[in-house]
Amino acid sequence: MHLTVNQAADGLRRFESCPTQMIKKIGSKYVVLSETTGRKMGTYSAKKEAQKRLRQVEFFKHLKSSPGLRSKLKKKSLLK
Q1: pTM of the predicted model, to two decimals?
Q2: Cβ atoms of 41 and 32 closer than 8 Å
């Protein structure tokens, strides 16, 4: 069974409460930064795009620490 695009988006929405301190406005662009290393995760022209990328980063960060979620996604063919 495969997840639809809407189901995947719903999974990302669970991490909607992204910490805004990881998004910095530099000039006219929004930069997503790692909290620990300060490494750039992407540069975006709109804050909404930067927030979307931050939700993706948070989703995969939580995925690493959640074996239950990983096994559910493996069963649905989203992970190898």
Answers
A1: 0.59
A2: yes
The structure tokens 């695009």 sit at 5
Question: What crossing angle do the helices spanning 5-13 and 47-64 adopt, rounded to 10°?
Answer: 90
pLDDT in tens, 40-65: 989 999 999 999 999 888 888 877 77
> What angle (nearest 5°) sits at the alpha carbon of residue 63, between those of residues 22 and 49?
40
How many domains would you assign to the chain?
1
Strands 23-26 and 29-33 turn out to be: antiparallel
80 lies in a domain?
no
- In terms of Cβ atoms closer than 10 Å to its own Cβ (0-12, 13-18, 19+), residue 5 is exposed
